[in-house]
Write a structure and sequence with these properties.
- By secondary structure, this protein is of the alpha+beta class.
- It has two domains: 242 residues, 3-Layer(aba) Sandwich (Rossmann fold); 127 residues, Beta Barrel (OB fold (Dihydrolipoamide Acetyltransferase, E2P)).
- 21% of the residues lie in helices and 35% in strands.
- The protein has nine helices and 21 strands.
- The strands form four sheets. A six-stranded mixed β-sheet has the order 7-8-9-3-10-11, with helices on both faces.
- The longest helix is centred in the middle third of the chain and has 18 residues.
- It starts with 20 loop residues before the first strand and ends with a strand.
Length: 393
Protein backbone atom coordinates (compact mmCIF):
# COMPACT_ATOMS: atom_id res chain seq x y z
CA UNK A 1 0.00 0.00 0.00
CA UNK A 2 1.08 3.61 -0.49
CA UNK A 3 1.84 4.12 3.16
CA UNK A 4 4.49 1.41 3.44
CA UNK A 5 8.10 2.43 3.82
CA UNK A 6 9.58 3.00 0.40
CA UNK A 7 6.14 3.43 -1.23
CA UNK A 8 5.35 6.51 -3.25
CA UNK A 9 3.98 8.45 -0.33
CA UNK A 10 7.15 8.00 1.73
CA UNK A 11 5.60 7.05 5.09
CA UNK A 12 9.00 7.41 6.72
CA UNK A 13 8.78 11.16 6.02
CA UNK A 14 5.59 11.65 7.96
CA UNK A 15 6.44 15.11 9.24
CA UNK A 16 5.68 17.81 6.70
CA UNK A 17 8.98 19.11 5.32
CA UNK A 18 7.52 21.81 3.06
CA UNK A 19 9.46 25.02 3.49
CA UNK A 20 7.45 28.16 4.05
CA UNK A 21 7.61 31.18 1.80
CA UNK A 22 6.18 34.65 2.47
CA UNK A 23 3.09 35.44 0.39
CA UNK A 24 1.48 38.88 0.49
CA UNK A 25 -1.60 39.41 -1.68
CA UNK A 26 -4.00 42.35 -1.57
CA UNK A 27 -5.88 42.63 -4.86
CA UNK A 28 -9.22 43.63 -6.28
CA UNK A 29 -10.56 42.38 -9.59
CA UNK A 30 -13.97 43.41 -10.90
CA UNK A 31 -16.03 41.69 -13.55
CA UNK A 32 -19.58 42.39 -14.64
CA UNK A 33 -21.11 39.77 -12.34
CA UNK A 34 -18.24 39.07 -9.91
CA UNK A 35 -15.87 40.99 -7.66
CA UNK A 36 -12.77 39.45 -6.11
CA UNK A 37 -11.39 41.19 -3.02
CA UNK A 38 -8.61 38.89 -1.87
CA UNK A 39 -6.28 39.68 1.02
CA UNK A 40 -3.76 37.17 2.34
CA UNK A 41 -0.45 37.65 4.13
CA UNK A 42 1.85 35.24 5.95
CA UNK A 43 4.35 32.40 5.66
CA UNK A 44 2.94 29.38 3.84
CA UNK A 45 4.21 25.93 2.89
CA UNK A 46 1.21 24.12 1.43
CA UNK A 47 -1.76 26.50 1.20
CA UNK A 48 -5.13 25.31 -0.09
CA UNK A 49 -7.81 27.58 -1.52
CA UNK A 50 -11.07 25.79 -0.83
CA UNK A 51 -14.63 26.62 -1.81
CA UNK A 52 -17.49 26.08 -4.20
CA UNK A 53 -17.09 26.34 -7.97
CA UNK A 54 -17.19 30.00 -8.97
CA UNK A 55 -15.98 31.29 -5.60
CA UNK A 56 -12.82 32.83 -7.08
CA UNK A 57 -10.18 30.18 -6.31
CA UNK A 58 -8.86 29.78 -9.87
CA UNK A 59 -9.00 33.56 -10.38
CA UNK A 60 -6.52 33.96 -7.51
CA UNK A 61 -4.16 31.46 -9.16
CA UNK A 62 -4.46 33.31 -12.45
CA UNK A 63 -3.47 36.54 -10.72
CA UNK A 64 -0.45 34.93 -9.03
CA UNK A 65 0.66 33.32 -12.30
CA UNK A 66 0.23 36.55 -14.28
CA UNK A 67 -2.53 35.23 -16.52
CA UNK A 68 -4.83 37.95 -15.14
CA UNK A 69 -4.20 41.55 -14.10
CA UNK A 70 -5.87 42.97 -10.99
CA UNK A 71 -7.67 46.30 -11.13
CA UNK A 72 -5.75 47.36 -8.05
CA UNK A 73 -3.39 46.00 -5.41
CA UNK A 74 -0.19 44.02 -5.14
CA UNK A 75 1.18 40.44 -5.11
CA UNK A 76 4.52 39.56 -3.51
CA UNK A 77 5.95 36.04 -3.31
CA UNK A 78 9.17 35.25 -1.48
CA UNK A 79 9.92 38.95 -1.13
CA UNK A 80 9.64 39.52 -4.91
CA UNK A 81 6.98 41.94 -6.15
CA UNK A 82 5.10 40.37 -9.04
CA UNK A 83 2.34 42.99 -9.26
CA UNK A 84 1.93 46.46 -7.80
CA UNK A 85 -0.60 48.62 -9.61
CA UNK A 86 0.36 51.74 -7.63
CA UNK A 87 3.99 51.41 -8.78
CA UNK A 88 3.02 50.16 -12.27
CA UNK A 89 4.82 46.86 -11.76
CA UNK A 90 3.64 43.80 -13.67
CA UNK A 91 6.15 40.98 -14.09
CA UNK A 92 5.08 38.92 -17.14
CA UNK A 93 4.14 35.26 -16.57
CA UNK A 94 7.32 33.76 -18.07
CA UNK A 95 9.49 35.83 -15.68
CA UNK A 96 7.64 34.93 -12.48
CA UNK A 97 9.17 31.51 -11.79
CA UNK A 98 5.74 30.15 -10.97
CA UNK A 99 4.82 26.59 -12.01
CA UNK A 100 1.16 25.96 -12.87
CA UNK A 101 -0.55 22.55 -13.12
CA UNK A 102 -4.07 22.55 -14.58
CA UNK A 103 -6.86 19.94 -14.65
CA UNK A 104 -5.74 19.15 -18.20
CA UNK A 105 -2.07 18.19 -18.24
CA UNK A 106 -1.62 20.04 -21.60
CA UNK A 107 1.47 18.02 -22.60
CA UNK A 108 3.05 18.41 -26.03
CA UNK A 109 1.59 15.43 -27.96
CA UNK A 110 4.51 15.25 -30.45
CA UNK A 111 7.10 14.87 -27.65
CA UNK A 112 7.59 11.80 -25.52
CA UNK A 113 7.71 12.21 -21.74
CA UNK A 114 11.45 12.88 -21.78
CA UNK A 115 10.97 15.57 -24.41
CA UNK A 116 8.21 17.27 -22.43
CA UNK A 117 10.40 17.31 -19.33
CA UNK A 118 13.55 18.47 -21.14
CA UNK A 119 11.64 21.32 -22.75
CA UNK A 120 10.62 22.61 -19.32
CA UNK A 121 14.17 22.12 -18.04
CA UNK A 122 15.55 24.31 -20.83
CA UNK A 123 13.02 26.98 -19.93
CA UNK A 124 14.03 26.74 -16.28
CA UNK A 125 17.65 27.34 -17.19
CA UNK A 126 16.86 30.08 -19.68
CA UNK A 127 17.81 33.72 -19.80
CA UNK A 128 18.13 35.70 -16.62
CA UNK A 129 15.21 37.58 -15.15
CA UNK A 130 16.19 41.20 -14.74
CA UNK A 131 12.75 42.71 -14.10
CA UNK A 132 12.66 44.54 -10.76
CA UNK A 133 14.04 41.94 -8.43
CA UNK A 134 12.93 38.75 -10.21
CA UNK A 135 15.36 35.93 -9.35
CA UNK A 136 17.44 34.13 -11.96
CA UNK A 137 16.89 30.69 -10.45
CA UNK A 138 14.63 29.41 -7.70
CA UNK A 139 16.15 28.05 -4.50
CA UNK A 140 13.78 25.09 -4.99
CA UNK A 141 15.17 24.12 -8.42
CA UNK A 142 15.51 20.35 -8.91
CA UNK A 143 17.60 18.34 -11.34
CA UNK A 144 16.11 16.10 -14.03
CA UNK A 145 16.93 12.79 -12.32
CA UNK A 146 15.60 14.08 -8.99
CA UNK A 147 12.23 14.91 -10.55
CA UNK A 148 12.06 11.58 -12.40
CA UNK A 149 12.73 9.66 -9.18
CA UNK A 150 10.43 11.83 -7.07
CA UNK A 151 7.44 11.28 -9.37
CA UNK A 152 8.20 7.71 -10.50
CA UNK A 153 8.59 8.64 -14.17
CA UNK A 154 11.55 6.46 -15.20
CA UNK A 155 9.41 3.82 -16.90
CA UNK A 156 7.43 6.46 -18.81
CA UNK A 157 10.24 8.51 -20.37
CA UNK A 158 10.00 7.02 -23.88
CA UNK A 159 6.20 7.06 -24.08
CA UNK A 160 3.98 9.62 -25.81
CA UNK A 161 1.23 11.41 -23.85
CA UNK A 162 -1.52 9.62 -25.81
CA UNK A 163 -0.38 6.29 -24.32
CA UNK A 164 -0.48 7.47 -20.68
CA UNK A 165 -3.30 7.21 -18.14
CA UNK A 166 -4.79 10.41 -16.73
CA UNK A 167 -2.81 10.00 -13.53
CA UNK A 168 0.43 9.41 -15.42
CA UNK A 169 -0.12 12.51 -17.55
CA UNK A 170 -0.66 14.60 -14.43
CA UNK A 171 2.55 13.27 -12.90
CA UNK A 172 4.41 14.33 -16.04
CA UNK A 173 2.70 17.74 -15.90
CA UNK A 174 3.87 18.16 -12.30
CA UNK A 175 7.39 17.13 -13.33
CA UNK A 176 7.36 19.65 -16.14
CA UNK A 177 6.30 22.39 -13.73
CA UNK A 178 9.06 21.43 -11.29
CA UNK A 179 11.76 21.50 -13.98
CA UNK A 180 10.84 25.06 -14.90
CA UNK A 181 12.64 25.99 -11.64
CA UNK A 182 9.67 27.69 -9.94
CA UNK A 183 9.75 29.49 -6.62
CA UNK A 184 6.10 28.52 -6.13
CA UNK A 185 3.96 25.67 -7.53
CA UNK A 186 0.28 26.29 -8.28
CA UNK A 187 -2.27 23.48 -8.66
CA UNK A 188 -5.63 24.32 -10.24
CA UNK A 189 -7.85 21.34 -9.33
CA UNK A 190 -5.36 18.85 -10.84
CA UNK A 191 -7.44 15.81 -9.82
CA UNK A 192 -10.88 17.10 -10.83
CA UNK A 193 -10.89 15.32 -14.20
CA UNK A 194 -9.62 12.00 -12.81
CA UNK A 195 -11.70 9.06 -11.63
CA UNK A 196 -11.35 7.77 -8.07
CA UNK A 197 -8.70 5.19 -8.96
CA UNK A 198 -6.52 7.72 -10.79
CA UNK A 199 -6.85 10.17 -7.89
CA UNK A 200 -5.53 7.51 -5.53
CA UNK A 201 -2.67 6.95 -7.96
CA UNK A 202 -1.50 10.56 -8.01
CA UNK A 203 -2.21 11.80 -4.47
CA UNK A 204 0.79 10.01 -2.91
CA UNK A 205 3.10 11.70 -5.42
CA UNK A 206 1.78 15.16 -4.56
CA UNK A 207 2.26 14.32 -0.88
CA UNK A 208 5.79 13.21 -1.64
CA UNK A 209 6.44 16.43 -3.51
CA UNK A 210 5.20 18.43 -0.54
CA UNK A 211 7.39 16.55 1.95
CA UNK A 212 10.60 15.71 0.11
CA UNK A 213 11.03 18.49 -2.44
CA UNK A 214 10.03 21.20 0.04
CA UNK A 215 8.35 23.16 -2.74
CA UNK A 216 5.87 25.83 -1.55
CA UNK A 217 2.42 25.01 -2.96
CA UNK A 218 -0.88 26.80 -3.50
CA UNK A 219 -3.51 24.15 -4.18
CA UNK A 220 -7.04 24.89 -5.43
CA UNK A 221 -9.86 22.39 -4.91
CA UNK A 222 -13.50 22.09 -3.89
CA UNK A 223 -12.90 18.57 -2.51
CA UNK A 224 -12.63 18.77 1.28
CA UNK A 225 -10.85 15.44 1.80
CA UNK A 226 -8.28 16.29 -0.89
CA UNK A 227 -7.52 19.64 0.71
CA UNK A 228 -7.28 18.12 4.20
CA UNK A 229 -4.65 15.60 3.06
CA UNK A 230 -2.42 18.06 1.27
CA UNK A 231 -2.54 21.42 3.02
CA UNK A 232 -0.91 22.94 6.07
CA UNK A 233 -3.24 25.94 5.89
CA UNK A 234 -6.67 26.20 4.27
CA UNK A 235 -8.31 29.43 3.11
CA UNK A 236 -12.06 29.05 2.61
CA UNK A 237 -13.22 31.35 -0.21
CA UNK A 238 -16.77 32.39 -0.98
CA UNK A 239 -17.94 35.10 -3.39
CA UNK A 240 -14.39 36.32 -3.96
CA UNK A 241 -13.45 36.78 -0.30
CA UNK A 242 -11.68 34.71 2.34
CA UNK A 243 -14.19 33.55 4.94
CA UNK A 244 -11.71 31.72 7.18
CA UNK A 245 -8.11 30.61 7.21
CA UNK A 246 -6.23 28.17 9.43
CA UNK A 247 -5.09 24.54 9.81
CA UNK A 248 -7.34 21.97 8.06
CA UNK A 249 -8.67 20.56 11.33
CA UNK A 250 -9.84 23.97 12.50
CA UNK A 251 -11.21 25.26 9.21
CA UNK A 252 -12.95 22.18 7.80
CA UNK A 253 -14.58 20.86 10.97
CA UNK A 254 -16.68 23.73 12.39
CA UNK A 255 -20.40 23.72 11.69
CA UNK A 256 -20.30 27.00 9.72
CA UNK A 257 -18.10 25.33 7.06
CA UNK A 258 -20.72 22.77 6.19
CA UNK A 259 -22.03 24.80 3.29
CA UNK A 260 -18.63 24.50 1.62
CA UNK A 261 -18.27 20.79 2.24
CA UNK A 262 -21.76 19.28 2.29
CA UNK A 263 -21.70 15.51 2.47
CA UNK A 264 -17.97 15.65 1.71
CA UNK A 265 -17.35 17.17 5.16
CA UNK A 266 -14.25 15.77 6.82
CA UNK A 267 -12.39 15.89 10.11
CA UNK A 268 -8.62 16.07 10.47
CA UNK A 269 -6.87 14.62 13.52
CA UNK A 270 -3.29 13.68 14.32
CA UNK A 271 -2.03 10.53 16.04
CA UNK A 272 1.30 8.78 16.51
CA UNK A 273 2.29 5.27 15.53
CA UNK A 274 1.93 3.01 18.56
CA UNK A 275 2.70 -0.48 17.29
CA UNK A 276 2.12 -2.96 14.48
CA UNK A 277 -0.16 -5.93 15.09
CA UNK A 278 1.65 -8.73 13.24
CA UNK A 279 -1.16 -11.23 13.70
CA UNK A 280 -3.79 -9.09 11.98
CA UNK A 281 -1.71 -6.75 9.83
CA UNK A 282 -2.92 -3.55 11.52
CA UNK A 283 -0.93 -0.47 12.50
CA UNK A 284 -2.18 0.99 15.77
CA UNK A 285 -2.01 4.75 16.37
CA UNK A 286 -2.20 6.47 19.74
CA UNK A 287 -4.58 9.39 20.16
CA UNK A 288 -5.81 10.97 23.43
CA UNK A 289 -9.36 9.96 22.46
CA UNK A 290 -8.52 6.30 21.77
CA UNK A 291 -6.58 3.93 19.52
CA UNK A 292 -6.87 4.21 15.74
CA UNK A 293 -6.40 1.05 13.64
CA UNK A 294 -5.20 1.22 10.04
CA UNK A 295 -4.67 -1.74 7.66
CA UNK A 296 -1.05 -2.42 6.73
CA UNK A 297 2.33 -1.49 8.18
CA UNK A 298 2.64 2.30 8.39
CA UNK A 299 5.70 4.21 9.56
CA UNK A 300 7.71 3.73 12.72
CA UNK A 301 6.75 3.99 16.41
CA UNK A 302 6.33 7.59 17.51
CA UNK A 303 5.85 9.01 14.01
CA UNK A 304 3.00 11.53 13.70
CA UNK A 305 0.36 11.05 11.03
CA UNK A 306 -2.59 13.22 10.13
CA UNK A 307 -5.89 11.40 9.49
CA UNK A 308 -8.70 12.57 7.26
CA UNK A 309 -12.03 11.07 8.39
CA UNK A 310 -15.16 11.54 6.28
CA UNK A 311 -18.23 12.52 8.30
CA UNK A 312 -20.24 9.85 6.50
CA UNK A 313 -17.84 7.16 7.80
CA UNK A 314 -18.51 7.93 11.47
CA UNK A 315 -21.07 6.07 13.61
CA UNK A 316 -22.00 7.10 17.16
CA UNK A 317 -22.73 5.30 20.43
CA UNK A 318 -23.74 6.68 23.82
CA UNK A 319 -21.88 3.90 25.67
CA UNK A 320 -18.50 2.40 24.90
CA UNK A 321 -19.40 -0.22 22.28
CA UNK A 322 -18.85 -3.94 22.75
CA UNK A 323 -19.23 -6.80 20.33
CA UNK A 324 -18.98 -4.61 17.22
CA UNK A 325 -16.66 -4.79 14.23
CA UNK A 326 -15.32 -1.23 14.59
CA UNK A 327 -11.65 -1.17 15.61
CA UNK A 328 -11.38 2.60 16.02
CA UNK A 329 -13.44 4.10 18.86
CA UNK A 330 -12.79 7.72 19.88
CA UNK A 331 -14.30 9.27 22.99
CA UNK A 332 -15.35 12.90 23.18
CA UNK A 333 -18.09 15.37 24.10
CA UNK A 334 -20.81 16.72 21.83
CA UNK A 335 -20.08 20.36 21.06
CA UNK A 336 -22.87 21.13 18.58
CA UNK A 337 -25.87 19.50 16.93
CA UNK A 338 -27.05 20.99 13.65
CA UNK A 339 -30.34 19.69 12.27
CA UNK A 340 -31.14 20.14 8.61
CA UNK A 341 -34.70 20.74 7.43
CA UNK A 342 -34.25 17.28 5.90
CA UNK A 343 -33.47 13.92 7.52
CA UNK A 344 -29.75 14.50 8.27
CA UNK A 345 -28.13 15.99 11.38
CA UNK A 346 -24.53 17.03 11.87
CA UNK A 347 -22.85 16.25 15.19
CA UNK A 348 -19.66 18.11 16.14
CA UNK A 349 -17.60 16.28 18.76
CA UNK A 350 -14.65 17.76 20.65
CA UNK A 351 -11.91 15.24 21.37
CA UNK A 352 -9.22 15.40 24.07
CA UNK A 353 -6.33 17.47 22.77
CA UNK A 354 -8.71 20.13 21.39
CA UNK A 355 -9.40 18.36 18.09
CA UNK A 356 -12.83 17.79 16.56
CA UNK A 357 -14.54 15.00 14.68
CA UNK A 358 -17.75 15.43 12.71
CA UNK A 359 -20.48 12.84 12.12
CA UNK A 360 -23.47 12.94 9.79
CA UNK A 361 -26.35 10.80 11.07
CA UNK A 362 -30.13 10.88 10.72
CA UNK A 363 -32.26 13.16 12.87
CA UNK A 364 -34.17 10.04 13.91
CA UNK A 365 -30.93 8.58 15.31
CA UNK A 366 -30.34 11.79 17.28
CA UNK A 367 -33.78 11.52 18.87
CA UNK A 368 -33.56 7.78 19.57
CA UNK A 369 -30.10 8.12 21.14
CA UNK A 370 -31.44 11.11 23.16
CA UNK A 371 -28.12 12.94 22.79
CA UNK A 372 -27.56 16.60 23.55
CA UNK A 373 -24.75 19.16 23.71
CA UNK A 374 -22.27 18.34 26.47
CA UNK A 375 -22.99 14.59 26.45
CA UNK A 376 -20.14 12.09 26.27
CA UNK A 377 -20.21 10.19 22.98
CA UNK A 378 -18.19 7.48 21.25
CA UNK A 379 -17.30 7.96 17.57
CA UNK A 380 -16.66 4.72 15.68
CA UNK A 381 -14.80 4.42 12.38
CA UNK A 382 -14.29 1.23 10.39
CA UNK A 383 -10.67 0.24 9.80
CA UNK A 384 -11.51 -0.28 6.13
CA UNK A 385 -12.51 3.40 5.91
CA UNK A 386 -9.07 4.32 7.26
CA UNK A 387 -6.89 2.92 4.51
CA UNK A 388 -3.96 4.80 2.95
CA UNK A 389 -6.40 7.32 1.48
CA UNK A 390 -7.10 8.66 4.97
CA UNK A 391 -3.48 9.58 5.67
CA UNK A 392 -2.31 13.14 5.15
CA UNK A 393 1.38 12.78 5.85
Amino acid sequence: MAGEAGGPAGAGRAVNMTRSTPIDIDVTLRRRDFTLEFRLSGEFGALALFGRSGSGKSTVLGLIAGLLRPDSGHIRVGGVTLVDTAQRIFVPPHRRRVGLVFQDSALFPHFDVRGNLRYAERFGRGSSDDLRGAATRSEFALEFDDVVNLLGLAALLSRRPATLSGGERQRVAIGRALLSAPRLLLFDEPLASLDAERKLEILPYILRLREQAGMPIVYVSHAADEVARLADKVAVIDAGRIQAIGPPGEVLAPAWARGAGGFAAVSVIEARVLAFDEAYGLTMFDHPAGVIALPGRIGRPGEPHRFVIRATDVALAVQRPRDVSFRTVLSGKIEAIERDPGPIARIDIRLPGDERIVALITRKAVDELAIDIGDRIFAMVKATALDERSLAR
